[in-house]
Structure formats: structure tokens, C-alpha cells
Amino acid sequence: MKSGSNLEKVIASGNPAVTAELGPPMSADGHEVVKKAQLLKGFCDAANITDCQTAVVRISSIAAAAIAFQNGLEPVMQMTCRDRNRIAIQADLLGAAALGLKNCLCLAGDHQKFSAAGRLKGHPGAKNVYDVDTCQLVGILRKMRDEGKQEGGDPLEVSPRFFIGASWTPMGDPIDFRPVNLMKKVNAGSDFIQTQGIYDMDLFKSQMEKACNLGLHERTAVLAGIIVPKSAMMLKYMDSSVAGVSVPRSLIDRMNKAKEAAGDDKKKAREFQEQEGIRIAVELIQQALEIPGIKGVHIQAIEWESAIEGIVKAAGLYPRPTFPES
Amino acid sequence: MIMGSQKPIDEIWGMVKDFNKVLVFGCNTCVAICHAGGEKEAETIASLIRMRARQEGNNMVVNHMGVIRHCEPEYFEPVMEDVKKYDLILSTACGVGVNFLSDRTGTVPVYPGINTSFYGSVESSGFFKELCAGCGNCIVHLTGGLCPIARCAKTLMNGPCGGTNKGKCEVSNDIDCVWYLIVERMKMLGTLEKLSEIQPPRNWATSRDGGPRRISLEHLREFEDKEALKTRAAGGEK
Fold this sequence. Notes:
The structure holds 2 protein chains of 2 kinds. Chain A has 11 helices and 8 strands. Chain A is an alpha/beta fold. Chain A has one domain (6-228, 289-314): Alpha-Beta Barrel (TIM Barrel), CATH 3.20.20. The N and C termini of chain A lie close together (11 Å). Chain B folds into 2 domains: 2-118, Rossmann fold (3-Layer(aba) Sandwich), CATH 3.40.50; 136-210, no CATH class. In chain B, the strands form 3 sheets. Chain B has a 4-stranded parallel β-sheet, sandwiched between helices. Chain B has a 3-stranded antiparallel β-sheet with strand order 1-6-7. A two-stranded antiparallel sheet of chain B has the order 8-9. Chain B contains 9 helices and 9 strands. The two termini of chain B are 40 Å apart. In chain B, helix 1 (9-16) crosses helix 3 (39-55). Classes of the chains: A alpha/beta, B alpha/beta.
């Protein structure tokens, strides 16, 4: 075992892995993390704790991950390259490992301009760091773990032993480069990969085929990203505006139908769409798990953690495997 | 070349309003080409300040002047005595010029009349674009001649992030994703396989992170020293 994390054990056992996502709050309210952790506990093998996603200031990934961990939910801490240089990154990794965290997902991070959206003022004028990029960050984690060295070469008496993850946008532009992109992240040392949300399973399948032809599925565990749709509007937005996401017309039509079935009743329209969204998510999970090379799913129910239980159960992925304490 | 853009007149007025004798000092090289701070623009800025001064009932003296370059002493030394007669020099050179003058004008302050923007190209008339970040360690032979340090919002070194959308950057629909361009260009050049190699963490010490940078051409300095000695030996200098 590289890290001995629960997620690593599930993947090693050959069971399809399930990860979910927990977004920390925009305030110092640790109870919010506990509440969300309780919703997810038992229904996933580990949950990503986002690192100021969309560049919005929230409880830090490490702190929220530690809270989740104390409350019985295995976290995947996230580490973006946006906010820290290699000194801060490594210091935080050492601290996270000392707190008992065992999974880390490496990300470039959303640009700070995303922080000003809707009613949020955010910090679009912040200075970003990007001392290292995702590939380099993965390499730093691997070097710390496997060589017992800091990036600069100084020895680590006790190495942080992370199960190392990276994200992959399989259908992003330029699409024919994306398998190479994945290869670089795997070569750098990614033990697992979580993909951008996928709706177009046919296109994803063809990208996975290319990844398999490069032998990557044998060197890393690719977890297909599933973003649970909440409304027709959300699907349309994701299709038109979210990078690397295309939503087949048929899915948007299904959601539209669910909405229309409620007539003028807005509350019902919301409920019907949510129910349809959960059905779609379950179908996507099942389709993704059929794709050769896929080792699990990463289910994101954004600000809707309560949906995970039902989805995981309906997808036949409950109960989650458990392992005796080693 | 170095690109600049004009500052709003309100900001300029805020800087100059408390001085009695102001020189708007233009630089006729880079910043003249991008219509920000050449002698012509210095003249315009000077008249805008005069107009504003009149409106505010302020009878300050505002003149303008221009030299070929602010970043080499030989160009402004001939006018240095005149320049020092003012209470304030509003330099419309790039930041290099402002600094260079400040190091040499004694008690006369030098304020920036423009914003120094970037190292860029003249894409077309009136349109300038950043293409180099001056990071001190050029690697564009690895990226099809296109720079991910200057042109990627995240200075990524190993390929595009997940934010590339229809060839555009996640920061804005009107910014090309340089990694998209790099991949397309390297495909065209038949060198795409170079991108499979992982680029390790960079040494940013060659960029501004190593403190102010200097280049010293020892052979040239030695030559100059020798020439000076020869001149002195021949009695050419007292």
C-alpha cells in the first residue's frame, strides 16, 4: 500500500470505487462540515474536500478534511496550484499528513476571476501563484512519498504518504491532446484520476479507449466524474459554458419534460427535475462503470450532499466495502 | 517592445496638482509606437493638465519635452539641466524610464505619466498584445515558439488546464488558450511528441523572484575600461 487510505484499499480490492464531494462553507462554521460529512459517511469510500473551488474563500481543504476525518468520513484533500508556492504546498502537505490525511488530489485551480459571480464579490484582483503546475505538483507528492525528499532535495525523516490523485478533462480542448495530458499526469505519479463531469458517454468511451491504448488504465485508477444534474437550466448552462462538458440533447429534453410535467407548480417542477436528475445520474454511473478501464465514479452533487445516499443505493453501489483495521 | 497605456487624466491630475512647474517628459521609442508616451502624447497630456488647471483656478506652468530614449543616459543628458528646473517630471516613458530618471534627478521627483503594460507586439494598427514575460529562462523551443509563461493565465508548463473552452481561455472568451495554439502549432510542425515530456518545476530565480535582475557583459566592460585607459594615456582626458 502506498498510503493505506480506504480509497486505495477499495481500488486495490477491485471493487468499483465511489468518491463524492464536500464543499466547505464560506464561513468559520465547522458544524456545516460535520453535517455534510454525516450525509456522505458510509455512501462513498472517500470525499473530496474542495480547495476554495471557483476561487471563493472557504474553510481550507486541509482543515475541513481534518474535521471530516474526525467525524468518520475519509477525505480526499484538494491542493490547487493557484494559491500557494512550493514552500507553502509542501508545508501544508506535511501538516495534512501529520493530521492523518491520506489522499490528495492535485489541481491547477479555477482562475481567481471566477470568484466574482452572481452575488459574490470574490477576489478577482488577487495575485495567483502557479509556482508549479498540476503535473509538477503530482511529482512533488510522489518525490516526498517515494524518495523521502522535498522538491528542493532536502531529506524528510518522515515522509507524507499520500494516495495521489489528479483531475482529467477528457473532452476538453484540444481533445486529441487530452490522452497525452492524462499520460503526463500518470507518468508524474498519479495513483488515481477523477474526471470532469461526463454526460456524453460515447465520446468519453472513445477517449478512454485512447487512454487504454496508452496502457494508462493499468497504471492509474480512473474514476469517471458524474455531476448530478438538478435542473434543465443547469444542464443547458453546463453544455454551453462549462469547459470540457457537452450534454447530449436527449438529456436536456428529459429534464425539460420533467419540468413541464409539473405545469405551473414551481415547487413540483423543482422536485420532478431533481428526481429526474437523480435517475440520470444513476444511469450515467452504470454506463460509466461499463467502460473498459474505469475503476469507479466520482459523484458530485454540488451543494446537494443529501442526494448521494439515494444515488449510490440506486446504482447498486451500497453497501461500500469495508476493511479490517490494519 | 515595451507597451504602455495612458493613465486617466483624473489620476494624473491627482499626482500633479500640488506642483507649480511640471514637465511632461516623453520617450520616443517603445511607448511612442503604442501611442502612449511619445513626445506627441506628452504634448497632449500637458495640454490636458493645463486645461484642468485652468478649470480649477490653478496657475501652474506645464511644459512638455521628448527625447529618443529615457533608458540610456546619452539621450537625456543634454537636456538634464533644463529638466531639473521643474518641480515635477511627469515621465511618459515606461517604468524603466521613470526609474532611470529618478535615480538621476536629485531633489526633483519623477512620477509615472502612463501605465507600463507588457512586452508585446503591434498586431495591427492600434492593437498590441503581450507575447513575452521576460522570465529570464526562455523555453519556447519546447512549445512551438509560443510562450505559456506570458500567454497562459496560469503559467502552466505541461499542457492545458481543464478550462480551455472552444480554444479559448477560461478567463475570457476573447483570449486564446495558448496551450490550444501550442498543440495545434506543434502538430503542424510535426513536433507534438515533445509535449509528452514532463517539464519539471521551474527555477523562477531568473524571473523577478530573484530580485532585480542585471546583465553584465564582462568582455564589453573590460574593453570600455581599456579604451578609457588608452585615452587617458594619450592625454585625451584630464
